[in-house]
Amino acid sequence: MEQEQGRTDAARAGREGRGDLAEEALRDACRTFARALGGRSRAWVVAAPDVEDVARRLGIDPGAVVEPLGGAPVRMRDVRALARHRDEAPAAERVPLAVDVSLTSALGCPAGRLGADVTLASLDRIVCTPACGMVMVGLRREALQGRDGCAGMADVASALPVPEVSQLQALAAGMADFDARRRCANDNAQVMAAYLRCHPAVRAVRYPGLTDDPSYEAAAANLEDGFGPAVDVLVDAAVAASAAGRGTNGAVDLCGRYVPGGTASRAHSLATAEDGKWLRVECGCGDARKLVAAAEALLRP
What we know:
Layout: H1 2-37, E1 42-47, H2 51-57, E2 69-70, E3 75-76, H3 79-87, E4 98-100, H4 111-114, E5 118-122, H5 124-127, E6 134-139, H6 141-144, H7 153-159, H8 165-196, E7 202-206, H9 216-222, E8 230-235, H10 237-244, E9 251-254, E10 265-273, E11 276-282, H11 288-299
Parallel strand pairs: 4-5
Antiparallel strand pairs: 1-6, 2-3, 5-6, 7-8, 8-11, 9-10, 10-11
Helix pairs in contact: 1-8, 8-11
């Protein structure tokens, strides 16, 4: 009986120890996100299926959440300009400026410092797991004070459910090298954009890191450590169909099996244009030379 009780106590202590480590990982991640967001922000990591779910819980219309880096083709929206537009309204009529930085992460877009009241981000890319069930919530100082339509939002964020211990362990492991992976993926996207703009099958390239891109200036002022992992290219419809036919559901994995934030990359179809079709290459953090070779093979007739 004493031996059995000893085993039970040891198991309980082990679970408590893992729980303590998970809590520490949660605090570290939240501090990292808050520092990255700037604007004297506070950050939470919550359990939720996606950004839209968290927005609704905070009382924000998911359709009003802005992706600073997004769209089809990809472009950068200036968060500073959006904040100035918010401030033009009378104080009592202001609506929170909420942004989704899932593509860049909080580390790549200091949205709080730029003026966003609420910053949301899926953590899929950090833990390299699609639909990981964790979302970051960040509120800048003014939002924490309840200004600009954010009254009570900090209390709501604090009451949102916390991820399970296993999820937090995955978060801790992912945070250890995420910044390096993020920077490498951004560098690979820069290489890919430069390569694709010279490819004979490509009619146009949209990447905010190219100095002649329409949103280059906004991206240079809003992003840090690169211009994001997504490169969009306009190709003939026949080329797009051929490329899509090599994958599943319009997506083709490049250089391995694609997971968000991993080494492999993925090409998939976007919007149809008058003179062709847009494809997006979401770059991973693998070898840039192998990625260029894979793109060349993908666009080959």
